[in-house]
Specification:
This protein is 52% helix and 15% strand. With 472 residues, it is α+β, with helices and mostly antiparallel strands. The strands form three sheets. Strands 6-8-9-11-10 form a five-stranded mixed sheet, covered by helices on one side. A hairpin with a 2-residue loop joins strand 2 and strand 3 (118-128). The longest helix is centred in the middle third of the chain and has 64 residues, at 209-272. It is rod-shaped, with a radius of gyration of 57 Å.
Length: 472
């Protein structure tokens, strides 16, 4: 049985029970009131006969108490009985002899008997006459009216119950259809929902339970949509990471192949024939350069892998001046364009001092590589709010706009042949970005071809020491 039919059945059953219970209450109350009315009338007549003076006529049923158009009640005439239950008047018959055993002087006794297939309500009272024994008075009342009333109620109930059940069933069906319409809408919406289409939503109207259900359903779809979007993004990130990893391995293999080929070619040539000391020394110098190049590349690869590894625990705090001075000492020890440095007050930033120093070293090295010796490189350090900034600007050859977005990718070179000749591997800016991403910083590059390049790095200030910066 469907939920709709169960709902209609339960509503019809509830209405039927309510109708039957109401009919029972009405019938029982009608019976009670009817009997109370008859008993009061019978008691009044019987007590009037018992208390009348000797020889006075007894009261008769008033015309307004008789059933309409039916004449006098044949059982309404009182019967006076002796102490042994015999009628005092000839031709009369007691209504209920068993009631004489229950009669008491304190009050009347009411019983219902069947006489000639007719129900009769009887009242029995005890009397005592001066100088005589006890006697009884019985007065009856025909219950035909009550029987007709009960039959009428039964006929009405027989007609009313099926009609009420039918009406309740129709009303229940209509209400169920109206009540289940939002549920059907939810079902249709749920059928349209797939992992690739979670945009379906229900129209919410009102503030009842069904509106709350529709709201909860929409919120669930929203959460699922966010969850699927996050999953799709995670899958895309994983695919991108795998692709980058494959590209990284391929690029690293390609970068290592060149110095390895030089090394093998040089050593093979030196071993094939009799070479003098000058040729052997030249071969060893070439082998040494290839080994140095491979050592530098491997060192940068390890640095990049360490910078991209997840952080464990809290980040260390470092003096920004210490990192910059360490970088300046390293770069200025080699020939190249002069560097002009300008500092503001020292401040503590998040990150390892040697990692931050490597970022500055890479930026200064790149600036010197593409700036002539008579050029100028400026280094500026300042801070504002939650960020500390270090700027490295040069007046070198500059970078074309099509290369700016790709700077920072692994092994990407603006001029591959020139960079390889001068020892560049295309990992410097990638290492800078990885170190800055690790501490929550960022790197920005601005350049104009033929004018120069300006690189800015932003490092988050350590909030625990922001009010007490490190002294210079």
């Amino acid at each position: 049985m469907s939920f709709r039919l169960r709902l209609v059945f339960l509503s019809a059953l509830s209405v039927m029970i309510a109708v039957l219970l109401t009919a029972y209450i009405i019938s029982s109350q009608t019976r009670k009131l009817f009997f109370q009315s008859i008993d009061r009338e019978l008691e009044g007549r019987a007590m009037g006969l018992r208390d009348r003076p000797p020889g006075a006529p007894g009261p008769e049923m008033s015309p307004d108490r008789r059933p309409p158009n039916r004449g006098p009640d044949p059982f309404g005439r009182p019967v006076e009985l002796t102490a042994n239950g015999m009628p005092e008047a000839a031709g009369e018959t007691p209504y209920d002899l068993e009631a004489l055993k229950l009669a008491r002087p304190e009050g009347p006794v009411f019983t219902t008997v069947t006489i000639d297939d007719t129900d009769v309500r009887v009242v029995t009272v005890m009397r005592r006459e001066p100088g005589q024994g006890a006697g009884y008075i019985q007065v009856g009342h025909n219950m035909a009216d009550f029987k007709r009333l009960g039959e009428t109620q039964s006929r009405i109930l027989i007609l009313l119950v099926p009609a009420t059940i039918l009406a309740a069933g129709i009303a229940g069906w209509l209400l169920a259809d109206r009540a289940l319409k939002p549920v059907q809408q939810i079902a249709r919406t749920a059928e349209r929902v797939t992992h690739s289409d979670l945009g379906a939503r229900l129209n919410v109207s009102g503030q009842d339970e069904l509106a709350q259900l529709a709201t909860s359903f929409n919120e669930m779809l929203g959460r699922l949509s966010i969850s699927f979007e996050e999953r799709e993004k995670l899958v895309q990130d994983l695919q991108l990471s795998l692709e980058q990893q494959r590209q990284f391995v391929a690029d690293a293999s390609h970068e290592l192949r060149t110095p390895l080929a030089r090394l093998m070619l040089t050593t093979s040539s030196a071993l094939q024939g009799e070479s003098d000391s000058t040729e052997l020394r030249k071969a060893l110098e070439i082998a040494d350069q290839a080994g140095t190049s491979m050592s530098k590349l491997v060192d940068q690869l390890l640095t990049l892998a360490r910078a991209e590894a997840p952080t464990a625990g809290e980040l260390p705090s470092s003096s920004l001046h210490s990192a910059i001075h360490e970088a300046l000492d390293t770069v200025q020890a080699t020939p190249g364009a002069p560097i002009e440095a300008s500092f503001s007050d020292d401040i503590s930033v998040l990150g390892d001092v040697h990692d931050l120093s490597r970022v500055v070293i890479n930026l200064l090295t790149n600036a010197r590589r593409y700036t002539s010796e008579d050029g100028c490189i400026k280094l500026l350090q300042d801070s504002s709010g939650e960020w500390a900034r270090v700027v490295v600007a040069d007046n070198g050859c500059g970078i074309s706009p099509e290369h700016l977005e790709k700077l920072g990718q692994r092994f990407y070179r603006v001029d591959a042949s020139r960079a390889r000749k001068e020892g560049g591997t295309g990992l410097g800016l990638a290492i800078c970005r990885a170190i800055l991403n690790r501490v929550g910083g960022r790197l920005e590059i601005q350049s104009e071809l033929g004018t120069g390049t300006r690189v800015s790095i932003f490092v988050p200030v350590d909030k625990n020491f922001s009010e007490n910066p490190v002294s210079k």
